[in-house]
Structures are given as C-alpha cells and as structure tokens.
What does this fold into?
Amino acid sequence: MFTGIIQAVGSIVDAVPQNGDLRLQVQTGSLDLADVELGDSIATNGVCLTVVSLPGDGFVADVSRETLDLTTTGTLGPGDAVNLEKALTATTRLGGHIVSGHVDGIGEVVSRHSDARSERFRLKAPDNLAKYIAHKGSICVDGTSLTVNRVEGAEFELNIVPHTLENTIFGDYKSGTQVNLEVDVIARYLERLILGENAADPAFSSGSGGISLEFLKENGFIKV
It folds into this structure.
C-alpha cells in the first residue's frame, strides 16, 4: 500500500524484454533505499513493482504482461523520468489517500494552462472509469494522490501546485501524454457491495454488466 505522496523522481536505466514480458531497471535518485529489501514494493509511476535486485543506485523489477497491458510501463525507455514511492509503514503519515499501486487504466492529458502559480490540467479517463471519479474526490495519477476539481463526463480537472510540479513528473506533461490512473479504492468496493448477492453472477462482472439506473431502481436504491 502507498499514500500517493511522491518521495523522489527516478529514471529508467534499462527496459529489457524477457520472453514476452519486461525486466525494468530504475535509478532511484534521492530515494533512500537503506531500508529496502528484496521482495519489497516500490510504486513506479503508480505501478506497484516488486524489487528483485538492488544494484546499489536503484532497483530491478519484473513487469508482467498484465501490467504491460493495463499501464504505460511498456512505453518506458532509458532516460525516462518516473515518480517513486516506497510502500507505507504503520508509522507513515497518510498525507494523500490509500493507494494500492494497482492501476485501473490509462488516461490522457487533454490540456494544461497556468492558473496563478499553479497549473490546471484536464485529463480524460477511459469511459469505464468515469463513474468512479467524483468532484472533490481522490484520484491517483502516475502514483500522485490528487483532488479532482471538476468533472465533465469522462474528463476531469486537476490543480497542480508548484511543489508538486517541481517534485513529480507533472511538469513534463503536455497534451497527449498518457498517464496511469488508479481510482479511489473505496469507490471500487462500494460498487461490489451494492451488487449484494448479484456480485456472484458473472453477468455483473467488471466490463460485462454492473450497476445501472435500472439496477438501482429495482433494488430500492432509487425511489420512483
């Protein structure tokens, strides 16, 4: 688990294909690795990766096909900057929100513009994730815990303060940049809980059914 508070910006040293998946080597910059051991988790652009080797100035992790299919990790190459966060501990300040490091989908930067000393970003989420994004709710973008300032359909806006611009890879974003998105875990579990006994029905599995206005009316969540 993570908080979405980026601890350092690192860079990709190498991305080597390995029989259909990928082995990634990351140089971790100012991230303190003194307490990191083999098997520990480090969020890399919001993707929870398991440390398989510690070469001294970074770590090496294997990236599965599932992760390559659902995140931007497969597009990373030598020199690319990445947001880094070590897994939280029982004494960690939860300054952001609860982040699992399990990316839900890939979003895209639509636009950005200055707003006083901050930058306003407009992003588009995949249509199937739009229902989880709420005004003033939390969302994780490339591992960064952020507050949603506005929602219009599948598009949403973020206000990025100078500190975040300087200490994450947000400063490099431009129109068309693809980003990893993780929605609030509470929203995901709430959807399953509302399904009740129907959750065991394959027809209500993710991507093939789910909660609709008709479902809510039939089950008494909406009075007509």
User: Anything to note?
Assistant: The chain has three domains: 8-86, 105-183, 186-218.
